[in-house]
Amino acid sequence: MTQQPSSASNPIDDTLDGYETPKPQPTSGRVLPDPDRNLPVPRQSHIISTVLSPAVRLWLRSQVSQVDHLDLLIEGGDRQLLTGLVPRITISGRNVVYEGLCLSEVRLIGRGIKVNFGQLLRGKPLRLARTITVQGDVLLTEDDFNDSLQTPLLATALSDCFVELLRAGAAPELVDPTSKKPIILDNFQAQIDPERLTLVADVISVTQGTATPFAIRTGLRVSGGQALQLVNPEWLPTPTAKRGLSLDDLDGFTIDLGTDVALQEIVLGDRTLTCRGTLNIIADDADSIDSDRHPI
């Protein structure tokens, strides 16, 4: 059962005029449900429908290279919106491609968002006036994950991870510590099973010059929000092997996610990977944003 937040924890309670009881929201059954689904929902205002909603939609589409379906719910009173404060935005999208990452389902919730409302009224594009933290649920299929491996963002991150795994004990003889690019990964593929992730690649070592098939199967757990850890990793003689050689020295091996991410949960399912957590979205240059003060 969801508890209603107290007024002390909700700085926007003094502007709830015009709110109505929300209707239950259906979920896909795969992405985790919205923890705030029982909060009051505002009636649609003229400002939201004519100014803010089109501007937010345009901004969102400028951030991604593809989105097949986009749902947007903006909540707030006119007095707040006229000052550039958006109390809450809920965004749902399907088949989203962001910086090369392929995501089957995305759901984001942002609160206390400050935008350049004064500039919006003059026909300028939407900009963030301050950095915000959004709560998000993301679902990738196995095909999404493998498609994402073809892009520099994920390929580089996993390549660096593979190098560290090999150097840490998986196959140190393949790594030349004096080389700036000790190995080359080819034919990178992933297989997602319940509680297990299998990564397969041909490792081309600069020390040997030949391709060596390499496969590792591991569980994953969140560590401190900003890192993932391997759980009971195994070296596999073949990608489909039921049993492998336990890599005890790599149990608990940590993969840093950076300070702008706070991962709360990661779930490996049947050909799916679901993540829940928060992400910092960096504000635009403050010098290019006006004070956004507009008389009511």
Characterize this entry briefly.
The chain has 296 residues and is α+β, with helices and mostly antiparallel strands. Helices cover 18% and strands 39% of the residues.
Shape: elongated
Q: What's the domain count?
A: 2
The helix tally amounts to 5
Name the helix and strand elements from N-terminus to C-terminus, one letter apiece. Answer: EEHEHEEHEHHEEEEEEEE
Largest beta sheet: what is the strand line-up? 3-4-5-6-14-13
User: Structural class of the secondary structure composition?
Assistant: alpha+beta
Folded structure, characterized:
The chain has 296 residues and is an alpha+beta fold. It has two domains: 40-130; 145-278, no CATH class. The chain is 18% helix and 39% strand. The strands form three sheets. Strands 3-4-5-6-14-13 form a six-stranded antiparallel sheet. Strands 7, 8, 9, 10, 11 and 12 form a six-stranded antiparallel sheet that branches. The longest helix is centred in the middle third of the chain and has 19 residues, at 152-170. The protein starts with 18 loop residues before the first strand and ends in a 15-residue tail after the last strand. Residues 1-29 and 290-296 have low confidence and may be disordered.
